[in-house]
Amino acid sequence: MKELKGACIIGQSGGPTSAINASTYGAIKTALESENITAVYGALNGIKGVLEDNLIDMSKEDREELEYMKHTPSSALGSCRYKLKNPDVDDTDYKRILEIFRKYNVRYFFYNGGNDSMDTCNKISKFMLKNSYECYVMGIPKTIDNDLNCTDHCPGYGSAAKYIATSLMEIYHDARVYDTGMITVVEIMGRNAGWLTAAAALACHKGAGPDLIYCPENVFDLDAAMVKINEIYKKNGKCIIAVSEGIKDKDGRYISEYGNDLSNAKDGFGHAQLGGLAAYLANYIKQQTGAKVRGIELSLLQRCAAHCASQTDIEESFSAGKAAVDCAVKGITDKMVGFERCYENGKYVCKTKLFELTDVANVEKKIPDEWFNESKDGLNEKFIEYALPLIQGETRLVKVDGLPRFVRLKKVKVQK
Amino acid sequence: MKELKGACIIGQSGGPTSAINASTYGAIKTALESENITAVYGALNGIKGVLEDNLIDMSKEDREELEYMKHTPSSALGSCRYKLKNPDVDDTDYKRILEIFRKYNVRYFFYNGGNDSMDTCNKISKFMLKNSYECYVMGIPKTIDNDLNCTDHCPGYGSAAKYIATSLMEIYHDARVYDTGMITVVEIMGRNAGWLTAAAALACHKGAGPDLIYCPENVFDLDAAMVKINEIYKKNGKCIIAVSEGIKDKDGRYISEYGNDLSNAKDGFGHAQLGGLAAYLANYIKQQTGAKVRGIELSLLQRCAAHCASQTDIEESFSAGKAAVDCAVKGITDKMVGFERCYENGKYVCKTKLFELTDVANVEKKIPDEWFNESKDGLNEKFIEYALPLIQGETRLVKVDGLPRFVRLKKVKVQK
User: Fold this and answer.
1) What's the ipTM?
2) Interchain pair A403, B45: CB under 8 A
3) pTM for this structure?
């Protein structure tokens, strides 16, 4: 394919992670160094920044300052949750995007995000192809959920998994400090896939993890779980349970909705929805056992705890962003950069690999059934073998005065 | 004073911290190396271990393994929340303690804990003095709450403060990733003193902290707070609020109880108490503003996140334990080892200093009024100057396979 000179736009989309900025930085840095790319623009708040002609000039940023992006959590360019319409039904947005691309001679488009973002990327790519506008479009994945299809794992997952496993080990020590009984419920993110909750099994692998792990891949039976919890509690005086926010019963109803239902039935004001799943389960288990029960929700911290990021994840994330630009300038388009795992002399090695955007968009990858234990309340060694390499390496996050030094962008607007 | 040869008992008490084991290890290591101390016993679950003759022999532990205690959160010997009775009313426990002390020729007693533990320590010390049983008793402080009297600060506070400030900085980045509105409420521990919540001001100092900080030192007026929150939210589209779990209204009622009251009035089942203060406030603010609001409770993590400990805190904690033994073998008794701050050539230096147990026990130290801003919803530079040195230094916690390597004690029981 021929070489194409022109500007590039880089956007970030979807929920933040500790590593998405490493990917975006990988793309920005490589683009700034590329001879074919004449200008490097950041789209503020993802595709909305393109639609609203709200771009910043990345070349105006201090190069050394940009380096801090690698360890800054959340999305430095801002994010959005904007879903593009089906272009066959309404192509207004696509026409507008094409208009902006033409205006700035954008020939490269990099979109850094999760499942929905790969869908956006795919639709834009196909629209440009259909309209014969020469533009190389590449998806750069990120998601703590680790649920993107095709790729071995997703940038951002390793850091979240490391934080979750570390926190569970610390909670394990804390939750057994007294010789009195104690049950602890830890709620972990993951609506449909249990990858994040499964990371708690890494703490078990170190002998300091939860007794029970419930993921949304399996039907959750509250009564059956109560039998197990009671059994463990009676034996040890302690019980730690890790649950995905997305666990559902056999009728497909979220357990987290049980609380609302109860409340609605009682007073119609839904007060019980104050707390989430952890609070609901903690309360329920307390009523059933009479034990002291504490509910803990890892909340936003699991996706933004850059101070506990996996350096492996950070480096891989960076490499994904870099590969996207390297491939695009070679004339490759309409792909997502994913990861392929190999073992060289028994050592984990991660290589970037290209996947069709169409294959990735809108498919959710779940934990293979055979990675769960028989009773579906824990993970086996297959999961450990998969996840352990992803959390290796301590973050190189720079600290100043004992606190993280995160990036400070000037965000110089591109003149319209 | 004359030298005294005999055994020592070391116990841990009260809520866990990331640094209490560093103090206990400081005492154990020093005791094991002391010529005057003939045996080093650990009391399992604090004073209960003494009362129940449940002791372990620290000399049976591997010395290199013991070193891991320095960075292991929670209380490695187990803790308790056992309050000794007034000996004038019921001296049963004291007589039992004396019996155990005599049985093992215990001449040194070190108790590592917070406010209540210093009270325990004080009572035991006074009882031994009154009964002319020669025993050197020393209190070693610990509390994330930082509310112990006399000492400049408490072992354990720096690590919790570092975790809180770091997490708040990360939440700051996460909570402003979208261009849509968002209000975030972060609930931080501290029933009567706001030291932990105030640590959020360190994130502000780095330009990435909460907009409002509410501590229990000041009356919390929900209506007045709502005016502020609305103002900030309207201006910025974002608002982050850090609140102590212990904030109270002008009538002395905990705000965290508002939820219960509402619910009890409605259905008598107290469902609304499912969530804590963060959940209640998030729900209330949502109703008042219509904004997207998220409540986050830092929960146990703030007291056990050893992976984010302050190395300054760890070293100081160790030195407090060491000083307790060093002083006791010199014949000093009935004191607590605290800290004195000095500045040498403008540089923070922390020295151990002895305080009367009587002066420490049962007094709660609060944040000085002049360290708050005028509107009492933030801290000023006086607090920053106080707290910043305490969070310095990255933890030397050893990691194996990307996860913390915490201590594994054999806990060899002392033969009764």
Assistant:
1) 0.96
2) no
3) 0.96
